UniProtKB/TrEMBL annotation:
Segments forming a coiled coil: none
Record flagged with keyword Membrane: yes
Origin species: Rotaria socialis
GO terms (BP aspect): proteolysis
Name of the featured protein: Peptidase S1 domain-containing protein
Length: 322
């Protein structure tokens, strides 16, 4: 379904100011006119990667405020087909400094990133393929729904073109047994698809690492998703957006509850509503590696919480194998 300027309601946690990043879209037809009703967004932090420069007016004169952006991690791997993880047939490209927050990703340069429509299309999250039949996402994305009515789309750049892409029905969800909404601890889930995706130049797998020191503070990382570009936005992005951020320590805007969470952001570049479950990607052994999962945050444009994927080796391998 399309997302024509819906109204959003924020469903907050009773114990914390964190909000999940799930966008719930409800479309009601009344008297032949489409009215958009309450859409619950469980925040985590979506991609505050806007495409326009921030402008302000001063005495009738428009001024432009620019943000610096980080250099991207270096990955120079050679694409090798279906057995390859973390390497795309289309190389990602990154903009030079002075573009605010984020920008449209090069088409099909992140072939493991998927769009997940849950509850018959009423809930939207991101995720990433780690096998052609398994998707990792955030546990809070699936906490209030069932596998029935969930569809995963792969090999897409724009959400509006998803009907022409590969899609698969989800057979079952497996959320971490110790997932807690209090602080979003163990915010990880694995979706098992009814049948595998076909590997193509636009559908691939992200690499994993079980080195629990990764990602490390100071490391540069890439986030990508279809989330809104500001906390006041009413529409998720049709285009896949990306931004370069930095893994950071604890701060006023982001406080990990344990070592299985990490903070990341940079100068206004951040995840936002609708990006939950998507990957934080770093370079490990010259391959793009999904070392984090978009989890939660205190609004957009600040450092946000990510689930550290490497801390869940036994959980992941117990489902997808070694």
């Amino acid at each position: 379904m399309d997302y024509p300027a819906p109204g959003y309601a924020i469903a907050g946690s009773a114990k914390r100011s964190y909000t999940k990043i799930v966008i719930i879209v409800v479309v009601i037809a009344v008297v032949g006119v489409l009215l958009l009703s309450a859409i619950g967004i469980a925040l985590g932090v979506g991609l505050g990667v806007g495409l326009s420069r921030k402008s302000s007016s001063n005495g009738g004169t428009a001024t432009t405020t620019t943000y610096s952006i980080l250099s991207a991690p270096t990955v120079t791997c050679a694409y090798g087909g279906s057995g390859t993880c973390g390497c795309a047939s289309t190389t990602p490209s990154f903009l030079t400094p002075r573009i605010i927050q984020g920008y449209i990703a090069t088409a099909y340069s992140w072939p493991w990133i998927v769009a997940i429509y849950l509850n018959n299309g009423n809930i939207f999250c991101g995720g990433f393929l780690v096998t052609y039949q398994h998707v990792i996402t955030a546990a809070h994305c699936v906490a209030s729904t069932t596998a029935s009515g969930t569809t995963v789309y792969a090999g897409i750049q724009t959400l509006s073109s998803r009907s022409s892409s590969q899609s698969r029905i989800v057979a079952n969800f497996t959320s971490h047994p110790s997932y807690s909404t209090s602080g979003y601890i163990n915010d990880i889930a694995i979706l098992t698809l009814e049948s595998p995706f076909n590997q193509t130049s636009t559908v691939g797998k992200c690499c994993l690492t079980y080195d629990t020191s990764l990602p490390s503070i100071g490391e540069h990382a890439v986030i990508a998703g279809w989330g809104v570009t500001s906390s006041s936005s009413t529409t998720i992005s049709d285009n896949l957006l990306q931004g370069v951020i930095q893994v950071q320590g604890s701060s006023a805007s982001c406080t990990p509850q344990s070592s299985i969470q990490v903070c990341a952001g940079y100068d206004g570049t951040d995840a936002c509503y609708g990006d939950s479950g998507g990957p934080l990607m770093t370079s490990v052994n010259n391959l793009w590696t999904c070392t984090g999962i978009v989890s939660s945050g205190k609004g957009c444009g600040q450092s946000s919480l990510y689930t550290r994927v490497s801390a869940f080796q036994s959980f992941i391998q117990g489902i997808i194998g070694t």
